[in-house]
Design goal:
The protein is of the alpha/beta class. It folds into 2 domains: 73 residues, Helicase, Ruva Protein, domain 3; 199 residues, Rossmann fold. It contains 12 helices and 9 strands. A 7-stranded mixed beta sheet has the order 5-4-3-6-7-9-8, sandwiched between helices. Helix 2 packs antiparallel against helix 3. The longest helix is centred in the N-terminal third of the chain and has 15 residues. The termini are far apart. The structure holds S-adenosylmethionine. The site of S-adenosylmethionine (SAM) has 21 residues, from helix 6, strand 4 and helix 10.
């Protein structure tokens, strides 16, 4: 970055982007041009698409903001933490380093839940999201299911407060009850035993020993609490399977995201849980098993 450090002259968008992308590429970042565009748009306070038609030079103050963002990206800080926004289910959600950055794969979980409730889109389904983070799953479901009430739990107060802010942003806050606590415990404490139509979760599922080998963006910047799934990555899945038969209505569903290579073990866990029957696993767009499903025995209520 030349201009701003040499006295703050205005710079041309194309030249700024070219230099930035070259720098990020030289640092081994996988999507240098895209990252540079996102960061320049953030520095200018505009949409990324607006960069293409922009004729005016970038003013020195914005060039300096861009340079600072670029330094942080070169140190592998995720773009979403730098811009403060990540789109999920076409909803631009606010994210901070207190929460996992929502992944496109998790949209498969949202789709799967909508499929399970296909005939109930406008009826008052009761749906829980355990480990809600920035609220991605609960908010997407609340938007897609206007008749539903959501319960969103996280052990992290910072995550819950951000999730509540995001819910307000998309005007679904009146249909989401946020509960702070450990796993499914807040549902039992709130008298929801036997009341849930769906218990959904994208839980922490990375085996502890594999955390250090994750890409630096994840290992160094995303909260360990959101990643660490215990020795085999499945601590949370066992907890959910144990709670599901008592929390779900007869005929209600458990929908849980899994990591690479975990679906077989989770299916076996669900098959071995009294009162639950596994349903076919849902694959992501790359054809990997991504969402394990089970149904509580009994007629749908
Ligand atoms: C993988 S992140 C998922 C975040 C969000 N649902 C998503 O899909 O982007 C897991 C979340 O579980 C939360 N969490 C971890 N341990 C928990 C616990 N014992 N009880 C409740 N939430 C927990 C973390 O704070 C984190 O927000």
């Amino acid at each position: 970055m030349r201009g701003e450090r040499e006295g703050g002259s205005a710079r041309d968008v194309a030249a700024l982007l070219r230099e930035a992308a070259e720098r990020l590429a030289a640092g081994g970042l996988p999507t240098p041009r895209l990252d540079a565009e996102c960061l320049l748009a953030a520095a200018l306070g505009c949409e990324r698409a607006a960069l293409y038609g922009r004729r005016e030079a970038v003013p020195p103050a914005a060039t300096a903001r861009f340079a600072a963002l670029l330094d942080r990206r070169a140190a592998r800080e995720p773009v979403a933490y730098l811009t403060g926004i990540r789109e999920f289910w076409s909803l631009p959600l606010k994210v901070t380093p207190a929460v996992l950055i929502p992944r496109p794969d998790t949209e498969i979980l949202v789709e799967a839940v909508l499929g399970l409730l296909a005939d109930r889109a406008r009826t008052p389904a009761t749906v829980a999201d355990v480990g809600t983070g920035c609220g991605a799953i609960a908010i997407a479901l609340a938007v897609a299911l206007p008749g539903a009430h959501l319960y969103a739990v996280d052990v992290s107060p910072e995550a819950l407060s951000l999730a509540a802010e995001n819910a307000h942003r998309f005007q679904v806050e009146k249909r989401i009850t946020f509960l702070q606590g450990d796993g499914t415990a807040p549902f039992f404490a709130t008298g929801l035993a036997g009341a849930l139509d769906v218990l959904a979760a994208n839980p922490p599922y990375i085996p502890t020993a594999e955390l250090a080998a994750l890409p630096p963006e994840v290992a160094r910047f995303e909260p360990r609490l959101a990643l660490d799934g215990g020795a085999d990555g499945l601590t949370f899945h066992r907890h959910l399977a144990a709670g599901a038969p008592r929390l779900l209505r007869p005929g209600g569903f458990l929908a849980v995201e899994v990591g690479a290579g975990q679906a077989g073990a989770v299916r076996a866990l669900l098959a071995g849980t009294p009162d639950l029957a596994p349903l076919p696993t849902v694959q992501d767009l790359a054809g990997r098993d991504r969402v394990c499903l089970a149904r509580r025995h009994g007629p749908a209520g």
